[in-house]
Amino acid sequence: MNGRNIDESGFISCDISISNVDLRFKPTLDIVIQRITEALGSLIHSIYLYGSVGRGTAVYGVSDLDLSVIVFKPLTERQKDSFQKLEVELCSELDAISKLEFDIGTFEESYIQNDFEWRFWLKHMCACVWGKDLRSTIKPYRPSINVGLEMNKDIEEWIDLRSNGLTRENYVAKGKSIAKKILRTHYSLYCQIDNSFYSDLYNIAQVLISFEPYQSACIKEALQVSQGKIDNFSHVTSLIEGYGETVSSLFFSIKTGTHTLSPTMKN
């Protein structure tokens, strides 16, 4: 693997592994997996770890714990409500993490239907921590704008202040997640041109600045928000409404074919 997260064959490397998990986080991970399996039982096909805990870069008491849960059939509304309550309960009980995030998908949509979304996600961004691992049967991917266009099609929902749940009470934690989403969405448009697939937000920011130096201040501010370093509600909302809207507009102009990116744009 080179420093751009690409292996010698040109495929994206996966830097997530259960062996990377810091010993201080393993009891927390075990508790969360146990509670998930108790709550959903035989409905679960498999559970996958992603994010900083799986990369071994998580900071105790600061970082999030991120899990993707594959289920055999869609959850009922009652099950969704119970799962959301479980998420809140666990986050308040566990000192090792600042936030707990679940992504839930069915086996049908994750393994059969979505080539550039769920299948890519499981193969390159996750490690199986419970159940039958689907990753071994999924082909590897190279950096592709198609992945970014599929995985980030929900960017408008993330930056919509009326529906994303951002409040004065949760804006630091919620703002971190939204800023990460904006930066990763923006970077996903350039990773194929840059022939890289960074997961580290600092490297992502550097690539973005190299292609769009005029956005340098916004990108750096988003990086600070993603790290929880900006403790100001108005700054966070302004960033989402400004930089977030800019990224969303660029994303959809590329998705609809009204705009293309050129390799010569890099500074």
From TrEMBL:
Domain named Polymerase nucleotidyl transferase: residues: 41-122
Gene3D superfamilies named among the record's database cross-references: Beta Polymerase, domain 2
Top-level taxon: Bacteria
InterPro entries documented for this protein: NT_sf, Polymerase_NTP_transf_dom
Coiled coil: none
Pfam family for this entry, one: NTP_transf_2
Protein name per UniProt: Nucleotidyltransferase domain-containing protein
Organism for this UniProt entry: Vibrio pomeroyi
